[in-house]
Amino acid sequence: APSTRLKQQSKASFPHAAEISFCENAEAGAAIGEAWTVETMDKCSIAYTEKQLRIDIERGVGANPKIRWPSRSSPLAKLAVSNGFTVTKTQKNKPARSTGEEASPSPELQHEFTIAIPPHSALLFPCQRATTIDAASDCQVLVKHLIVLDGTWAKAHRMYHENPWLQLVPHVKVEADRVSLYGEVRHEPKAGCMSTIESIVVAMKELGEDETGLDRVLAVFESMIAEQRRCKDENWKPKLKS
């Protein structure tokens, strides 16, 4: 399965970072300052300046809104990759149901998370637009940090579509030359797929990280798979009648 181990950091960590706000259940094309460029689409809108991006998605829209993004050569996109950016996700509260009693007031926006994406981050995700790490390097794309979506393949795809800000970072993938160790425990959707930890190890090796330490991580994972296999075999043994 494809994980983000992103720490919640303050904007002070990256003082020149871009700022991205992402709001669900919002009104597409809501009023905003004159300095912003606004593009309204079906059920969603984006507004941006050279340093800020706001995404508003209306209530009831599925997990894959069709968003037209600023060009990757735009000042905002370049700033986000080179200087990093912070993402703040909020959600507009649904109107309270009438119960005959006066509803307690609640804030209009509910804060879900704020995370800081370091400069020169890339998403490790095997989608159509992803390139190999070597190909990214050949195209002068500097990768210092990896964002990885951790979960089953179905959950990883859902996370990808539910966080459209991921479109701002380069996408990279690894090409497996062996069968995944995890294939003995869980069925992979197609040949060449790897577990989260295996894909991270392969990617970090390609980025030049210490192979000895990474091989140790993989050895621990392999021992976990062996234990899961043993438990599975024991559970499937026919029980003897007394």
From TrEMBL:
Residues 87-109 are annotated as: Disordered. SMART domains: DTW. GO terms for molecular function: tRNA-uridine aminocarboxypropyltransferase activity. Residues 40-233 form the DTW domain. InterPro entries: DTW, DTWD2/TAPT. Its EC number is 2.5.1.25. Keywords: S-adenosyl-L-methionine, Transferase, tRNA processing. It catalyses: a uridine in tRNA + S-adenosyl-L-methionine = a 3-[(3S)-3-amino-3-carboxypropyl]uridine in tRNA + S-methyl-5'-thioadenosine + H(+). One of its GO terms (biological process) is tRNA processing. Signal peptide: none annotated. PANTHER family: TRNA-URIDINE AMINOCARBOXYPROPYLTRANSFERASE, TRNA-URIDINE AMINOCARBOXYPROPYLTRANSFERASE 2. This is tRNA-uridine aminocarboxypropyltransferase. It comes from Aegilops tauschii subsp. strangulata (Goatgrass).
